[in-house]
Every structure is written in structure tokens, then in C-alpha cells.
Amino acid sequence: MSDDKKKLGTRAPLGVKKTIEAGQVKQSFSHGRSNTVVVEVKKRRILKPGDAAAAPKEEAKTVEPAKAAPKPEARKPAPAPKPAPKRELTAAERREQVKELERQAEEARMAALEESRRRDEQAKANAAEEEARRAEENRKAEEEAERRAKEEAEQAKKDAEAQAKAEQAAASAPAPRGAKPAPAKPAAPKRDDRSKGRPTPDRRSGKLTVNRALRGGDGGGRARSLAALKRAREKEKRAQAGQSGPREKTFRDVQVPDHITVGDLAKRMGEKAADLVKSLFNMGMMVTVNQTIDQDTAELLVNEFGHNVQRVSDSDIDIDTTEDVDAPETLKSRPPVVTIMGHVDHGKTSLLDAIRGADVAAGEAGGITQHIGAYQVTPKGGDPITFLDTPGHEAFTEMRARGATVTDLAILVVAADDGLKPQTIEAINHIKAAEVPMIVAINKIDTAGSNPQKIREELLQHEIIVEAMSGDVQDVEVSAKEKTNIDKLLEAINLQAELLELKANPDRDADGTVVEAKLDKGRGPVATVLIKRGTLKVGDTFVAGAAAGKVRALIDDHGRRVKQAGPAFPVEVLGLSAVPSAGDQFTVVENDQRAREVAEYRQGVLDKKRTTVAPMSLESMFDKKGSQTISFPLIIKADVQGTAEAVVNAVKKISTDDIEVRVIHSGVGAITESDVTLASSSGAPIIGFNSRPNAKAKEIAKRDQVELRYYDVIYHLTDWVKQAMAGELGPEIIEHIVGKAEVKQVFRSGKKDKAAGLLVLEGVIKKGLHARLTRDDVIVSKTTIASLRRFKDDVDQVEAGTECGAVLEDTNDIAPGDMLEIFEIEERERVL
């Protein structure tokens, strides 16, 4: 009882506590709760060395239900039977027990593996038997089919012989009168009888084999194709003729230019490119198929392979139209090409409008022509005339020169109230250089202050004598606005054309000049071409400058599609691969290969010209601008090629010694994303002349803060470029010298500064002005007059011939004999 009582000041620990009853455990919990649990007793198995074969046995487990807690009056429980004493195993016995268990597990594993192997062998044997059975069935079916085929062939042969004998006997014996010969019945084999007693090959005898397919027969056999039989016969014929060896090699005449790739040379020789590369390797040259070799190396290769060499120059690839002269009997009369030239705003386009009856000037920005327009006009009762309208602005010099070179006749338009201007004189020089006849059209005779006689007199200064002054140049007084004397001008043009006797051969491939070119958003590259000779048709293959193509469509000056264009006919050509340059030659060639060859050669010439650096000389070295020159980058996009060219030349003329224009890129068409990216990386503004950006380019420009400028009048563009370049340089600094003084004495002024005793030699000295201190004509410092004193008084300025004391700001390096130069600084707005 004392054991069950709690000690004072302590608490019974929680957990399992052994009771006095054997096989029972009493559990104590909080708040005085307890429970008695019966413990299962497992008897330990003892193994002896001689009991290895015996299997382990476990005694039956006996679990007694837990007895209820005893009452206080009946506290003595029934005595439990005492378990037999257990003997502890030794280490040797435990090792023996572990070895025995491992041995039993190994025997069980080996037995399982043996059983699995036996099952696999049995399955393989069954599969082999099944395969042998199927093979035997297939073999028997094939033998049966072969035997049947032989029997059928023998039977058919016997039937054919019997039928032949019967027909021969019937033919030799006379037939009785009125007796009809019995029709011969061919012995058709019955398919049902043949198929009896044997399995169907497709279903029962397995797959169709190669032997069965070649042998034919009932089992889905197939015969040799006609092509295979033909090849076999050809092979037999060659074998009989002794031609079974390799064919004889063909030797060719190979044209070798100055430079050619290994692949192109292999094509011309008809050899494998790998063979050429191998031969070059043997020569000690490590080249690839796409690498270019010179003419001498190519000649060695051609000779090594046994071909004949024909050396040609790269210049032979290009097309020379000057040597191609048409026979006189093939020439026919053609319309004249007339170019209207003159100063800006003298009425060139308005005069052409009066002739055409169409309003073109209204469609031009600012009322001035921005690019060459080509039109064909047929007057009433007259022959057709082709007109070219050139710009008169000073920026379009090259376009006027181009118009003068492609024309037969030039009309010089001079305003009667304005006289000869710079562009008028320039147009006269272009006409003289082109050696074409001229007609002077004195325009605006209806305006106040017009004096046509004054115009005729001014023309004498440039050796142009009109008919009214006993010369040979026709002159017509016209009014484009009132359409006065337009018929007289047309008569003068026809008369001059008759004197020229203009002829061309229309029955040949077309040859012409690109008057203008542009990149159209919906139609792609478009070129305005003036045909010189021949007839251009839809579908012709051509080359225009460095661009090749095939004529997809032809459009006349009225916007109508035409199928062909004859000599002196202006037409828009669609189908170019790229935008050519204005003034390029347009020539129709025989095939696409020739067009690509010429275009690639011309592009190579242009690339070489653009990338080749001119040799440095003393003159060019001193002509170069100084290292302090500021570069003003620009990107220019225009609607047509000629306008872009004119804009680039116009902005380059604005360059000075202090700042120069650098055109990073110029092109034709809309402003694209690549243009904006280039401008963003270089910090250049983009100028769009009759050109606008697409949506994506506008978005990128807004994001990257790229400046976009849009213009449609040339002088507005040049004015902005001048202002931008002036702003880049900043205001102009101008110095005005106001006085000079000499330092006579130096004395201290305060703790740090020095004062200079000055004698004013020229001008005046003012307080607060800038000064420059020089010693032996060398600048010592730049300073400012901080204070001036005359005796003891502070003064604002000192006149020449008097002495004074001055304190110079931020300098103490003063010595007697120094000179002081006083100046004012003026800032002016810079004008280029």
C-alpha cells in the first residue's frame, strides 16, 4: 500500500509503470486516473547448432482482457502463472541464425529465377514452333501455286496446239454446202476449279513475298513496267554494241571574265564544283565554292579539265548601245521630244497646261515643279509631240541637265516682265551643251510691264539671236494664262521637227532612258521611261541601271494601261526589282539570266565607286575642312529619285567651314522603321520631302524622340536646314576693340590683388569691360576691368592720353611694359 501512496510534495510521473502482477502494466494519468493493461508475452525461440533445418515457430499469443480495477475490500488478485526462464543467445548463435535466414532467402530467389527462365524458354519454343509451322504452310502454298501455274501453262500449250491442228484440218477439208463452221471455243480455265483444295494466298498463306510478286500467278503477282523493259532493251543494245563503258566527255568553250566564283565557273565548264575545289586545293589554294578567283587561276582550271578558254573582260558584260546602229531602211518617223526649260515661276508648267488642256501646276506644291513630268500631246490636225517639263528651281540643276540630254528640241520660257534670271542662263548653257535646237517662248505678254523686245536684246548677251533680229532662233510671244499664240508655238515645234527628220526603228527591242523613278506604296518600284527606239511590250525582260525586271504593266501619261510603247513615247513601267536612278539607260534583253548578269555588274561598279577612297594629295589635304568643323547629320526621304538627288545636293551646298551637312542616308518612298532606327542611333533628324512615315515608324519615332520634318517645297526645306545649322553653331561672337593702354607701374592693392598704373593710348577704358593682357605680343591672360581710379576718385571710364589705376579681375601676373587691350563682345544671330 505504501508503494501506491503519493509522496508529499511530488507528483507521479506520466507513462508506463510496472505493477506487481505478472503480465500487467498500470498506466497513470493526470487527475488521479489510471488504467491496467495486459502485456502480450512472446516466447523467445532458442536455436541450437543442430537445429538449423528446423523452421522457426512462434507460440500462440494469448491476450487476456483487462480486468476491472479491484475494489478496496477484494484487493488481492489471483496469482498469474510465472513464465519459464529465458536463456540469452550467444554471439555465435546469433550469427548462425542470421546466416540461416540469408541462405533461405537466397534459395527462394534462385528458385524464382529458375521458374522465370523456364517460362521464357517455353514461350520461345512455342513461338519457334509457330513460326516454323507458318513457314511450312507458306512453302507448301508456294509450291502448290507453282505446280498449278506449270500445269496451267502446259494445259494452255496443249489446247493451243490442238486448236491449231483442228483449224488446219478444217481449212484443208472442204466444208459441206449449207454447213456453218462451228466457232472455236477457247479452253478457258475455270477459276473456281483451280482454287479448290488450296488456301488463298492473300488471307491464309501470309504476306506477299518478292519471289511471288516476280513470278506472278494468282497470289497478287505484278508484271514489269514498260519503262523497265525499255531500259533493259537499251542496256542489251549497248552491251551488244560495246558501249557499256562511261560516256565520252564533252569539251566546251568556256568564257572566263576578270573575276568569277568557283561555282559559276563549274557551271560554265559542266563540271562538279567539288572537283574544282579539289584541284585548287592541290594547287595550294584553300577556297570555297562561293569564293571569287581571278582570270589566270580560272584559266588554269579550265585547261586542267581539258576545256577551251575564251578570255573576256568584265566590261564586256555591260550593254553598249552606241555600237548598235539600225539600218537606214528600218527607220521610220517618230514624234519629237520637246523639253520646256527656264527660270522658276516663269510659267513653264502653265504653258504646258495650256498645250495639254490639263491643270498640272495646281497639283504641284507651292506652284513649282518638283520633278520631271513627261506627257504626249496630239494637237488638232497635227502629229503627236512628247513634252518634258523640268523644274526651274536652282536645286534641280541635274534634272534640267538630264532633260536637255534626252530631248530633240528645247523651249526656253522667259517671262516678258521679269527678264533673264540665273536659272534661265543655266538652262541656256545646258541647251548649248546638249547641242539641240532652241525655241524661245516669251511668256506673260498679257501682264503689265511686259517688254518682249527687252528679252530679245538680253538674249544677245548669250549669243542667242532670234528671227526677229535676223537670227536663226525662232521666238514666239505667248500667254499661258490667256492661251494666246499657243497654236503658233505648236507650228514652230512641228516646223523644227520636220527640219530635224527624226526617225527610229520601232521593230526591235526597246531602248530608252529613265526620266524619273519612285517607290510606290501599292505598286512597288515605278520608273518613267522615255523610249528612244524599238517597241516596249508587256512581258519584256529589261535592265534599267542596276535594277533588272520584267514588264508587268505599262501606263501612259493619262493613267491608262497600254500593251506597248513605241519610240518617243513616255510610259510608266511596273515590274522592277529596285528603284533605278534617274538618267539610267533602259534596255530590253533576251532573258532573265542576261538581265541579272548586267544588273549585278553595274551594282558592283556602283559599290566600288562608293567605297573606293580617292588618293590623298597635298591639294586635297589642304582643301579638307579643319578638325573643328561640326558635322550636321541628316536623313532624307523623297517621293522620286530625281527629287531626292536634288534635295541632297541642295543641302550639301549649305555647308560652311564651321559646319557641314552629312547625309547619312537618302532614299525613295515612305519613312520606314529602319530609317527611324538609324536616326535614333545617329541623332539625325529625318526630312520627308513629299514623303510620310508609316504607322510603325511614327510610333518608334515618338518613343525614341526622333525629329521628323515634312516639306513639299524645296526652298522651305533649305531655309530650315540653314536655321538648324545656325542653331547648332550658336550665336556669332563679335569683338569690338574700344581702347588700348600700357602698364607703367604695378603696386599692391589690398592683401592679395595688384593694381596697374596705366597710360591710356587709344580709345577709352570702361569699368566692367573685357580686357586682354599681352606681353611681347603674347596673350598672358583674359580678364575684366574690376575697378578704375583717377587719383583717389573711382571713375567709370578714362579717356585716351590720361593716366589711371586699374584692378584686373582674377589675375596678378602684371608687369611694367605689358599692354592692355579693352574690347566689347557682341552676340549676333548666325546666318549661313
Q: Can you characterise this structure?
A:
Strands 10-11-9-12-13-14 form a six-stranded mixed sheet, with helices on both faces. A six-stranded antiparallel barrel has the order 16-17-23-20-19-24. 26% of the residues are buried. The N terminus is likely disordered. By secondary structure, it is α+β, with helices and mostly antiparallel strands. Strand 19 and strand 20 form a beta hairpin. It starts with 14 loop residues before the first strand and ends with a strand. It is flat. It has 19 helices and 36 strands.
Total number of β-strand segments?
36
Strand order of the biggest β-sheet? 10-11-9-12-13-14
Approximate strand percentage: 25-35%
Radius of gyration, in angstroms, nearest whole number: 57 Å
Portion of residues in helices?
25-40%
What distance separates the N and C termini?
126 Å
Low-confidence stretches: 1-6, 16-20, 52-75, 175-202, 217-221, 358-363, 366-371
**What is the 3D shape?**
flat
Q: Supply the number of helical segments.
A: 19
Overall mean confidence score, pLDDT: 77
* Estimated structural class: alpha+beta
Assembly type of the chains comes to single chain
Report the biggest beta sheet as strand number plus sense, adding barrel if it closes. Answer: 6 strands, mixed
